[in-house]
């Protein structure tokens, strides 16, 4: 097994660091892992999950994002110059997360694997869904959501109006009053531009049409844990919303919590077994043609 840190650059020149793990033998599939809100690509459980997948013959790329950690300084390369950029979960503009996911998908494709599977955890699952809805990328063979977050259903209209006003006044990077976001993600505030972007995209996830989920046109696997904040009800809703997916299934994994610490092998086994069925489907399709 080979492990290394890698760098990609997003569409706007932002430098993103990630972690890559490759099996000792040639891998047919590569899984691109999109972490959740405010956490990094280098969480211990990310590394353990990657090793578990590599042991099962699946390459793993843990994607660093502009929305990782609360507030950090990043490097942006533009016009042959290096600029400092304020990034992190408190300042992420949600729509720009698609640039980050695109860069990591491009990296996985460049590795030469037969299949690229996109996987998102918690808030990262929303980023993965949004990317596929926005880009319709035929290079992504399948999508896996792990503990997909429903937090954006809890947005407050009054806070959204305040955020929109601050953005209009050129104060989008200003943090909202403490307690403006009391619903999780490990923080009680984010910037005005972040909250305003959540308000823009939330209807596409959880509004009547659910058009972001409707943009999924590849096979879909939905996973939650038995000790998670979601379960069969959430699995059923995601699958119903993903009405264009040619194949969709979901499972509740026994003993796995939202942060999946200690559940890495269970998640890896579920994903690897499902990817194996996709390969069988592809072989059947080729045989029929």
What does this structure look like?
The protein is of the alpha/beta class. It has a single domain, classed as Rossmann fold (3-Layer(aba) Sandwich). Helices cover about 35% and strands about 25% of the residues. It has 8 helices and 10 strands. It has an 8-stranded mixed beta sheet with strand order 1-2-4-3-7-8-9-10, with helices on both faces. A two-stranded antiparallel ribbon has the order 5-6. Helix 2 packs across helix 3 and helix 4 packs across helix 5. The chain starts with a strand and ends with a helix. The mean pLDDT is about 90.
CATH topology: Rossmann fold
Q: Whole-Å distance between the termini?
A: 36 Å
CATH superfamily: Alpha/Beta hydrolase fold, catalytic domain
Largest sheet: 8 strands, mixed
The general outline is globular
Report the average pLDDT across residues.
Answer: 91
Q: From the coordinates shown, what is the CATH architecture?
A: 3-Layer(aba) Sandwich
Protein structure class: alpha/beta
Looking at how many chains there are and whether they match, the oligomeric state comes to single chain
- Gyration radius from CA atoms, angstroms: 18 Å
Strands of the widest sheet, in order across it, are: 1-2-4-3-7-8-9-10
> What is the level 1 CATH name?
Alpha Beta
- The total domain count is 1
Number of helices: 8
The share of residues in helices is: 25-40%
Strand content: 25-35%
Low-confidence stretches: none
Let me know the number of strands. Answer: 10
Q: Order of SSEs, N→C?
A: EEEHEEEHEHEHHHEHEH
């Amino acid at each position: 097994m080979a492990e290394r840190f890698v760098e990609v650059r997003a569409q706007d020149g932002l430098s993103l660091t990630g972690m890559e793990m490759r099996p000792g033998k040639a891998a047919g599939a590569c899984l691109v892992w999109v972490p959740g809100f405010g956490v990094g690509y280098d969480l211990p459980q990310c590394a353990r999950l990657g090793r578990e997948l590599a042991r099962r013959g699946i390459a793993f790329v843990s994607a660093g994002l502009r929305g990782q950690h609360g507030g950090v300084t990043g490097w942006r390369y533009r016009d042959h110059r290096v600029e400092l950029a304020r990034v992190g979960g408190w300042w992420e503009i949600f729509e720009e997360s698609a640039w980050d996911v695109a860069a990591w998908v491009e990296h996985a494709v460049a590795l030469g694997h037969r299949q690229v599977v996109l996987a998102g955890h918690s808030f990262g699952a929303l980023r993965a869904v949004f990317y596929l809805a926005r880009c319709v990328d035929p290079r992504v063979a399948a999508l896996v959501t792990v503990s997909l977050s429903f937090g954006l259903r809890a947005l407050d209209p009054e806070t959204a109006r305040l955020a929109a006003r601050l953005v209009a006044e050129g104060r989008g990077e200003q943090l909202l009053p403490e307690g403006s976001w009391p619903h999780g993600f490990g923080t009680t505030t984010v910037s005005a531009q972040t909250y305003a972007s959540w308000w823009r995209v939330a209807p596409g996830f959880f509004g009547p049409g659910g058009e972001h989920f409707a943009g999924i046109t590849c096979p879909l696997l939905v996973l939650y844990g038995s000790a998670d904040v979601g379960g069969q009800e959430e699995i059923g809703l995601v699958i119903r919303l993903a009405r264009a997916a040619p194949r969709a299934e979901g499972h509740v994994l026994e003993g796995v919590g939202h942060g999946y610490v200690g559940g890495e092998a269970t998640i890896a086994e579920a994903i690897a077994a499902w990817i194996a069925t996709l390969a069988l489907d592809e072989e059947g399709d080729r045989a029929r043609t």
